[in-house]
């Protein structure tokens, strides 16, 4: 038997052609698992993609360790959602050149839904005052942002609308092509393939959701407006606000009233959050508790497929909880 069949030689030649000549691969730092997945789908093997957020952490509230600060400094490009979601990168992003960072939520053409509680004073505050921070001295205003964005009442979980994901694949490919022109065509081809995969995922989710009668459902934090709008579902009822900060007693009681009036039949806790709060709120309501949702993909393997897997899993959990409803 020939130990080197022609196909093997052909593949080896292609690998040699694909390897960047004389240039180190780009290093890309990313904020949350979804962003890392988007970057990996566009770069393939042509760049090193690093995820900054710890798996057990809250995407809205994180502090970089010194080793992560160094990794970020050494990165050619920072891809992050933006100050509305991952404000812990705001300062680092501001220090980078325009082509050395990409804030996905700020890309022209991105569609964001208003937060579900848009008209509440608390929702007005969100995005200006990112969150209270219990790592330090207890002041609520330590993380005010100086940037002049005005996204205060928009839901920053924009990746839950696949339309935004498709736009970001193309935007990122264009930026990578400017940073690494030699591989520009490859990035653009990868982006087109990623868009097609996301189309297929979206179709699969639509058919899953169409198989059940899905009413409003209850969630841990106000993160699902972009998903429910994209997939034609009623707004979810969130127990905590868009930044996942702890709800007041008054809000909890208001939420219980809304649940009672809504005809909701399902509630979901969230990865990395205690289920106890959801359990307390739905106690005595007859709502079914579904599995924890993970809108940032924190419970999935950190690889290129994570974004699509996360969306699909969201659709599966929501459909399964409503299975058998009238
Ligand atoms: Zn969130």
UniProtKB/TrEMBL annotation:
Gene3D superfamilies: Nitrogenase molybdenum iron protein domain. Residues 1-23 form the signal peptide. Keywords: Ion transport, Signal, Transport, Zinc, Zinc transport. SUPFAM superfamilies: Helical backbone' metal receptor (SSF53807). GO terms for biological process: zinc ion transport. Residues 116-159 are annotated as: Disordered. One of its GO terms (molecular function) is metal ion binding. The keyword Zinc applies. Residues 122-154 have a biased composition (Basic and acidic residues). It comes from the Bacteria. Belongs to the bacterial solute-binding protein 9 family. PANTHER family: HIGH-AFFINITY ZINC UPTAKE SYSTEM PROTEIN ZNUA, HIGH-AFFINITY ZINC UPTAKE SYSTEM PROTEIN ZNUA-RELATED. This is High-affinity zinc uptake system protein ZnuA. The lineage of its organism: Bacteria, Pseudomonadati, Pseudomonadota, Alphaproteobacteria, Rhodobacterales.
